[in-house]
Amino acid sequence: MIYAVTFNPSLDMVFALPPGLPPGDTYNHVPWMAHAGGKGNNVARAIKQLGGPVTAVGFYGGVIGQTIQQLLSQQQISSLTTAISGSSRVCLTLLTDSVREMRGEGPTISPHTSRTLLERLRQQLTPSDWVTLSGSLPPGLSADDVKEWVRCLRPHCQGIIADLAGDNLIAACEAGVTAICPNAAEYQDLLAKSWNAYPVHVVVTEGPRGVLWHPPNGDPPQRIYAPTVPERNPVGAGDVLVGILAYGLWQGQDWPHALMRAVAAASASVVTKGVADIDQSLLKQLIPQVSRGSP
Description:
Layout: E1 2-6, E2 10-16, E3 32-37, H1 39-49, E4 54-58, H2 62-74, E5 78-80, E6 89-95, E7 99-103, H3 111-124, E8 130-134, H4 143-153, E9 159-163, H5 166-175, E10 179-180, H6 184-192, E11 201-205, E12 211-214, E13 222-225, H7 237-251, H8 255-267, H9 280-286, E14 291-293
Parallel strand pairs: 1-4, 1-8, 2-6, 4-5, 8-9, 9-10, 10-11
Antiparallel strand pairs: 2-3, 6-7, 11-12, 12-13, 13-14
């Protein structure tokens, strides 16, 4: 099983507007889609699309939280949660000439509530499982809580992949995650903070260029080159990469081959209107086009 943790889930709504529209007008009958959002839920959807076993873990509250869980259930993704008093958030993506994202603030989560969900997850883990930790933290939680999650879970699973940022990402490294997946800007931020090298796989995502993989054993970095595809909506592509990477490792693939399929899947997602939706017929065509080599 792969457990995809979303610390700050959301109901993601995507509106597709024609290009060149002037501001200030009202637009009716706009095509839209709703997804169970937050980076970890995107990870879970990606894994499920390829037939992998996944459980979405997160804090869901209010009517919006119920809606998110219903959307997960419609895709046959089980969820693991604990009761909270606040409402889950809404995030909005506008597809026009460019991509615009508006992210609502999530409910306040206390460290006690966090530990309750953490303990429920720990009790379910088996040594073959993988865990992904993704996205921002809700109000009330801090980098110390990230350390607590990693230190509690790591002895009970095969590995943990963290797609976090800033101090939360550093905390995950200090606590002993298996891998981190920063984008290029987040990686530069780590270097600027005099980040020490921890024994983790570092997978730097660089959009159309693919990823730069730094193995933890001192071997030289390798670039996984992404195939060229027409980009329609890149939102969620990094989450697809994390999900399919975790799925490949769970299946027993080695790191290079798991990364190559993950890069192909991310590329097969940016051609769709949806968030973290994989064009599976295109994916089959793209896998042989992914290559790796020196940076």
